[in-house]
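Supplementary Data S3. Sequence and structure tokens for construct A.
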Amino acid sequence: MKFMQKSASILLTILAVKSAQALPQYNLGDKVLGGTVVYINKSGTHGYIAANQDQGRGVRAFKAHEYCMDFAYFNDEEQDYTDWMLPPLFVLKSMYEQRAEIGGFDSKKYYMAGGFKIDEFPGVSFAFATNEEWHVKIFTFVNVRCVRWF
């Protein structure tokens, strides 16, 4: 019985290593999978890809997520993917750091993923003009640049 458990453990380890070796590795700025790689993990196998242009400018914050779900706001290559979403704040900051390489950013606030409560400051945006986080209410105008996970 111990031999079978040991054999199974070795086989799983081999499969895990083979599987990890088979994953493509990307670098920041690579143009792949419908956009530009803007964040990657240490192994280069997982991260976020930003769309190549804004999906909306001057959008009410409470409607920002809708722009990531409507193909009308994406180019032909981006339309091949259906898993676009609003970026988390750390990804927005990474996009800011690479804004010159990615291109097409406005200097206004870009909205991040988050929820809303009407009388509070629940949403957060990131101002590309000043490199600052801003708390926003639902009727604030923001820009939208969607991302996807790989």
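Construct B, processed identically:
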Amino acid sequence: MTEDDNKLVVSRVEPKYRRPLNDSQLEVLKLLYKFRFSSSELAARYLGKANIKLVQKKLKVLEDQGYAGKRYDKSYKLQGKAANYYLTPKGARLLRQLYQQYKDSGGKTKPSIEISNQGIKQLYKNQTVLEDFITHCLNILNIYLKLREQYGVQSMIKTRYWLWINLTNDFATA
């Protein structure tokens, strides 16, 4: 018997069927699209949930299915930092597919977000961006939440990334 025969091989088996994502999980994906990064605490505030654990479960499901990614390092625990989540290209394609279904149905279902191919390409960079950029995105989300709590304004506030993606869509269709 060689040493290779003693090694344990663990493989992850994907289930044959997964339930479709619910509205709350889709809202988390839209949040990640709009602000690029979020912690579970900020996502809970955005969704109006008092229980952060429920939001963490939603993020875990999205991460397991490949719709969201997580940036976490062991050093975060010592620093007291939370894990940061971001939208993956697979998650963006899902949002785009749902938007297309919305357009095809004549607006009879809940709309999602229109995302261009260029927007999906930008999401590949989320895995390698610097911590300063992630902190910047989290600060913008935090400011948005404070403005929303104080003034109740939601639809008026757009991020630069969101505007860039949507302007790119407008120019691509013109």
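The helical segments are 23-35, 40-47, 52-64, 74-79, 89-104, 117-123, 131-151, 160-173. Residues 19-173 form a domain with the Arc Repressor Mutant, subunit A fold (CATH 1.10.10).
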